[in-house]
């Protein structure tokens, strides 16, 4: 009797474990999914947007088309609405959880990106580490032409910005979560890379778009972007600075930031040390070491001046200096920071060391 | 000779660390971040002091047990009726804590990984905790030792990786507070994190020495858990800033979502975090169920063990399944603040009074 009882218990336990393996409400086989590589958001009418989807197609199911991706677009009032509607056209389940890149059309970015990004955080449908860029030009061409270097959809854009691949400091890799967090932070405005539809290529980097309250209000050019990277500790690896008569490589930098509030006016002091090496000197007009350093310093000063003029004019603190003033302001004053930033006194000083002049002596 | 305590020092440490892992990772950070505009470590420090005080009161009470269990000692001192009155809030608290922990964990899975899987199915995980609780305290302790080793390593790794993309200026103000959290009910709602000692007090016999040893282990566990608790609160704030962190349901889960490194082979750190948290939650639910079952058994000695645990399983499962939404869950946590504060600070005083009265009565009885 005891034996029967024990076997009965065993049977019950085994049946209970079977319940666990049947519970697969959210399972979808990988070959029944269409994974989104890149998403593009474009303004369609005043109230709607067109969402571009680029799906990589694995070799095994390419068939006769021999194309390693296919592209579709869908108009909707919101991104989830478009994602929902595109399912009417797709034979497999839409899976945006592998999206590597999110491209925003410039016209959409000018009217405001705030309403279009919430779904990513709330529903966790698009990865928060996807890279984001603003696109100037024809989104359709970028999404429908094959990648020149053969990478899968989405991977190309990601590699374009990643420091371990084609990313250089000026490109200012920006991820989705950074943009979303700054939309809520009154002390830190967004700066999103701007790419233009290319002639030989999908797109090329042209600068960085300055955002205030989710809308484009200005643009930093490539050289100003380099200064932005140096001042915000985002500088990685090395970057080449081209000057009139010689080219130097910035291999290391360190910036100390000092802030204080004097009679309601923010005072921000930047002290920047740069270690450089010479990669090319002009043959037409000889320069010595101190002349090269002086030229680099004046060029950096000029870029910094124009960069701060552009950002301060709009009250867009893309550098996040405001975070250092949070402690000194009452919570009710936090919203005033963009206005305070306009009148901030920003000073900067460069200490440049030319570490070596390469494998050839400089006379 | 039989061990006068259910736990050794190391086991107590492991269980208390697991308790912190189960309670601190998902509900607590959002409560704390929304409770103050000032520095976050100050409310954490205030609660740490509160937890040390509460556990010290408990240890003074346990020191008077003389090798008995808390419930049976109080029952033999003040009788069944008064013991039931004294322990009713404890039973309600444990049932409430189980419901909240189970439903909160099911919700975290729904929000992050399995959006369409029914809550009623996910709540079925209580079955394994109930089975572990029914098996007795020794299997729970053995499981705790294994889970502690596994889960603490993963948690440590996740916290270290969590330092990527941290901007220290976002954490300001570091030292300023106006005490606003003292007037915010979410500060008190976070009290569940600091009650680990109250739960282990209900399990197993204690003597003066073992109570002192248990308190020391608890204090050590609390100190070891503080970096973890601070990490769960501060890492999202240092990444997203205060303003977005206040709007996030599970700030640390969203923080895990943002991490990308070329050298990390796992694409989805959130899934690892949620799985590790499951280890914590399974074990702590088993521990709470066992404490509850033990208490009910002493109050109703004739009831069969199996039926007690079956009854508790049905009550907790049903309540956790029928809670309509996350907001309701938060309300339950806020509404039960009073009961938790009673258990932390008043219950040990009342228990101690009951034991002292009985001791005096016993002493007088012996004298006459």
How would you describe this protein?
The complex is a heterodimer of chains A (363) and B (368). The model of chain A has no long low-confidence stretch (mean pLDDT 87). Chain A has an 8-stranded mixed beta sheet. In chain A, strands 11-12-13-14 form a 4-stranded mixed beta sheet, covered by helices on one side. Chain A is an alpha/beta fold. Chain A has 10 helices and 14 strands. In chain A, helix 4 packs across helix 7 and helix 8 packs across helix 9. Chain B contains 16 helices and 2 strands. Chain B has helices at 9-24, 28-35, 41-62, 70-112, 119-122, 126-135, 137-161, 185-189, 196-201, 208-240, 242-245, 251-258, 269-299, 305-322, 326-335, 337-367, and strands at 68-69, 205-206. A two-stranded antiparallel ribbon of chain B has the order 1-2. At the A-B interface, helix 1 and helix 7 of A face helix 11 and helix 12 of B.
SSE succession of chain B? HHHEHHHHHHEHHHHHHH
For the record, the CATH class of chain B is: Mainly Alpha
What is the CATH H-level superfamily of chain B? Answer: Amino acid/polyamine transporter I
| Biggest interchain interface, per-side counts | A-B, 30 and 33 residues
| Whole-angstrom Rg of chain B | 21 Å
Instruction: Report the uncertain regions of chain B.
Output: none
Across the major sheet of chain B, the strand order is 1-2
Helix tally of chain B? 16
The strand count of chain A comes to 14
Rounded mean pLDDT of chain B is 90
Q: Please report the distance between the alpha carbons of the first and last residues of chain B.
A: 33 Å
What is the name of the CATH architecture of chain B? Up-down Bundle
Number of domains of chain B: 1
Biggest β-sheet strands, sense, barrel of chain B: 2 strands, antiparallel
- Principal-axes geometry of chain B comes out as globular
Alpha-beta classification of chain B: mainly alpha
Number of spatially distinct domains of chain A: 2
The CATH topology name of chain B reads Amino acid/polyamine transporter I
């Amino acid at each position: 009797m005891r034996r029967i009882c024990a076997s009965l218990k065993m049977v019950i336990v085994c049946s209970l474990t079977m319940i666990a393996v049947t519970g697969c409400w959210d399972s979808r086989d990988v070959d029944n999914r269409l994974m989104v590589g890149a998403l593009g958001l474009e303004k369609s009418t005043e109230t709607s947007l067109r969402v571009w989807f680029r799906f990589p197609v694995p070799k095994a199911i390419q068939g006769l088309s021999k194309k390693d991706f296919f592209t579709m677009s869908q108009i909707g009032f919101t991104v989830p609405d478009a994602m929902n509607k595109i399912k009417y056209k797709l034979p497999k389940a839409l899976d945006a959880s592998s999206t590597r890149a999110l491209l925003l059309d410039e016209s959409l970015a000018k009217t405001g990106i705030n309403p279009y990004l919430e779904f990513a955080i709330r529903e966790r449908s698009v990865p928060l580490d996807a890279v984001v860029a603003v696109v100037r030009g024809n989104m359709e061409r970028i999404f429908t032409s094959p990648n020149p270097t053969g990478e899968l959809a989405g991977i190309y854009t990601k590699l374009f910005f990643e420091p371990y691949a084609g990313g250089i400091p000026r490109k200012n890799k920006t991820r989705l979560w950074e943009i979303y967090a700054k939309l809520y932070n009154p002390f830190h405005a967004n700066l999103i890379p701007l790419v233009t539809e290319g002639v030989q290529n999908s797109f090329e980097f042209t600068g960085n778009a300055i955002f205030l309250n989710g809308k484009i209000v200005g643009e930093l050019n490539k050289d100003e972007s380099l200064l932005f990277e140096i001042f915000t500790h985002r500088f990685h690896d090395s970057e080449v600075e081209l000057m009139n008569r010689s080219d130097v490589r910035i291999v290391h930098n360190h910036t100390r930031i000092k802030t204080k509030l004097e009679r309601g006016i923010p005072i921000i002091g930047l002290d920047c040390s740069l270690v450089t090496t010479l990669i090319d000197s002009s043959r037409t007009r000889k320069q010595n070491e101190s002349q090269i350093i002086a030229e680099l310093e004046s060029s950096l000063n000029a870029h910094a001046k124009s960069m701060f003029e552009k950002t301060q004019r709009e009250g867009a603190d893309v550098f996040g200096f405001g975070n250092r003033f949070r402690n000194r302001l009452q919570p009710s004053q936090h919203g005033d920071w963009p206005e305070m930033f306009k009148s901030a006194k920003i000073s900067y000083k460069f200490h440049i060391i030319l570490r070596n002049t390469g494998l050839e002596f400089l006379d | 000779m039989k061990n006068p305590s259910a736990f050794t020092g190391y086991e107590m440490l492991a269980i208390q660390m697991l308790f912190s892992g189960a309670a601190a990772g998902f509900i607590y950070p959002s409560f704390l971040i929304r409770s103050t505009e000032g520095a976050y470590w100050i409310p954490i420090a205030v609660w740490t002091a509160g937890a040390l005080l509460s556990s010290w009161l408990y240890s003074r009470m346990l020191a008077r047990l003389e090798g008995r269990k808390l419930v049976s000692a109080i029952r033999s001192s003040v009788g069944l009726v008064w013991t039931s009155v004294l322990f009713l809030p404890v039973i309600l608290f444990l049932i409430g804590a189980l419901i909240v922990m189970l439903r909160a964990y099911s919700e975290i899975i729904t929000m992050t990984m399995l959006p369409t899987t029914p809550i009623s199915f996910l709540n079925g995980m209580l079955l394994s905790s109930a089975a572990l609780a029914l098996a007795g305290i020794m299997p729970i302790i053995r499981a705790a030792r294994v889970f502690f080793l596994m889960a603490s390593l993963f948690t440590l790794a996740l916290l270290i990786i969590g330092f990527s993309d941290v901007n220290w200026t976002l954490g300001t103000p570091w030292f300023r507070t106006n005490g606003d959290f003292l007037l915010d009910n979410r500060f008190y709602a976070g009290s569940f994190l600091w009650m680990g000692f109250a739960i282990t007090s209900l399990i197993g016999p204690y003597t003066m020495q073992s109570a002192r040893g248990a308190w020391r282990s608890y204090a050590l566990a609390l100190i070891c858990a503080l970096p973890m608790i601070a990490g769960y609160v501060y890492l999202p704030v240092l990444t997203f800033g205060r303003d977005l962190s206040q709007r996030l349901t599970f700030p640390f889960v969203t923080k895990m979502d943002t991490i990308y490194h070329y050298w990390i082979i796992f694409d989805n750190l959130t899934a690892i975090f949620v799985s590790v948290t499951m280890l914590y939650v399974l074990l702590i639910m088993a521990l709470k169920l066992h404490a509850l079952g033990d208490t009910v058994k002493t109050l109703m000695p004739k009831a069969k063990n199996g039926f007690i645990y079956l009854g508790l399983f049905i009550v907790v499962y049903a309540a956790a399944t029928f809670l309509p939404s996350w907001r309701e869950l938060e309300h339950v946590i806020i509404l039960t603040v009073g009961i938790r504060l009673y258990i932390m600070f008043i219950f040990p005083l009342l228990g101690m009074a009951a034991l002292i009265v009985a001791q005096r009565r016993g002493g007088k009885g012996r004298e006459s």
